[in-house]
Amino acid sequence: MGGGEGGEGARALDQTPTWAVVAVCAVIVAVSILLEGILHHLGQWFSKRKKKALFDALEKVKSELMTLGFISLLLTVTARYISRICIPAGAADTMLPCKLSRSSEHGEGHGRRHLSEEPAYFSCPKGMVSLVSTDGLHQLHIFVFFLAVFHVTFSAITMSLGRAKTRIWKEWEKDTSSITYEFSADPSKFRLTHQTSFVRQHASCWSKSTIMLYVVSFFRQFFRSVRRTDYLTLRHGFIAAHLSPGTRFNFQKYIKRSLQDDFKTVVGISPPLWASALAVMLFNVHGWHNLFWFSTIPLIVILAVGTKLQAIIARMAVEITEKHTVIQGMPVVKLSDEHFWFGKPHMVLHLIHFALFQNAFEITYFFWIWYEFGLRSCFHDNFEFIIARICLGGVVQFVCSYITLPLHALVSQVSIQYRHCSPMFSNYPTSVCTDTYFNNQTVKAIYL
C-alpha cells in the first residue's frame, strides 16, 4: 500500500512517532554542530599559526560546502514540482546512461533504494513521462552529498601530498648555510658553464632539439622532478633578482607559502568547472564509453603541464650556455614570463586546477554510482574500463599533488609578473611590499 495509507513499510511523517523524528533530527544536528566546530577550530589554528593562505582556502571550502548545501535544499524543496513536469516518452528515451528497460517506466529502476512514486492523484498524460522522477531526484540528492564529502577529502589529500614534497627541500635549504655551498656560490670563483651541475643535467646535446628537449622533460617529471641543483639554482636566481646581496632568506619556507597560495586557488569551483562537470554527466550515454575518455583528459593535462615546467628549467640552462661561456659564482637563471605558454604564468595554475577538479569529480561519480546502483550495474557494463578509470584517477591525484603542484610553486618563481605580496607575510618585519609585480620591487621576504 502507498505511504500514508496504512502501509507499515512506508509511513508518512504524520503517522511517525515523535520520538523517532526527534531522535533522527538530534543525530543530524549533533553531527552538523560537530563538523562546524571542527572547521571553526581548524580555522583558529590556521590563524594562530599565521597561515593566512590556508585559512582563506578553508573559508573557500566552507563556501563551496554552503553552495552544495543550497543545491541540496533546492532539490528537496522543488522535487515534487520537478517530478510533475511531463515530457514526451520519445524524448525521455534518448541519451540514456543505461540500456532502456521498460520496467523502469513503472517505477522499477536500477537504484538500490526506491521511493514511492508520485501520489495517485497525479500522473502524466498518455505518451508522456516525468522529466525526472522523485526517486531520481533523491538519487541526485545523494550525489550532492557525495560531492561535498569528496571535495573536502580530495582537498586534504592535495595539500598533504604537496606539503610532504616541500619538506624534502627543507634539508636543501639547510645546506645553503654550509661551507660547501658558500664555496660553490663564491662570487669570486670563475668556471665554465658546462662545468656546473645545473647545466650538465639540463643542457646536453639533446637540448639543442626542441622535440628532444620536450621528450626528455616528459620523462624527467617522473624521476626526481626537482633535483637539489634545480632547487639551489632557482633559489639563487630568485634571491639575485629580488633581494640584496648577502640576504639570509629561507626560500623553502617561501615556496611552502606559495604552495599554500596555489592551494587556495585550486580548491575553488568556478562556473567553467561546474560546466565541465555537467558535460561529463551529459555525455555519459550508454555505449559511448565517454567516462573512460573523459578520465584521460586530466591525465593529459597534468602530463602536459609537468612537461612544460620541466622544459622551462631546461630552457633556462640552455640560455645560460648560450649567453655565457664563463660564469662567476653560481649560475643565475633569467626570470621571464616568456617561458610560459603565451607568456601567462597563471594559465599553468588554471590548468592544474581544472585537472584536479575534473579528476576528483569523476572519481566521486564512480563511487556514487557504486553506492546507488552497485559495482556491476549497467553504468559499468565494461568493467575493464572502470578499473582503468580508477587507476588513472589515482595516478592523476598523486602526480598532480605530489609532483606537479609543488613543481609549479617552485618554477613559477622565475616569472616576473606572477607572485603578489600577500598578507600571509605580515608577521615578517623589515620587509617592504608596494606592488603586485616583482620586477624592480623588494619582495616581502622570509628571513632566517
From TrEMBL:
CC per GO annotation: membrane
GO molecular function, one term: calmodulin binding
Pfam families to which the protein is assigned, alphabetical: Mlo
Keyword presence, Membrane: yes
Compartment list: Membrane
Topology within the bilayer: Multi-pass membrane protein
Record's keyword terms, sorted: Calmodulin-binding, Membrane, Pathogenesis-related protein, Plant defense, Transmembrane, Transmembrane helix
GO biological process, one term: defense response
InterPro entries (UniProt xref): Mlo (IPR004326)
Primary location recorded for the protein, binned into one broad class: membrane
Superkingdom, taxonomy of origin: Eukaryota
Free-text note regarding domains: The C-terminus contains a calmodulin-binding domain, which binds calmodulin in a calcium-dependent fashion.
Entry function: May be involved in modulation of pathogen defense and leaf cell death.
Name of the molecule in the record: MLO-like protein
Organism for this UniProt entry: Triticum turgidum subsp. durum
Gene: MLO
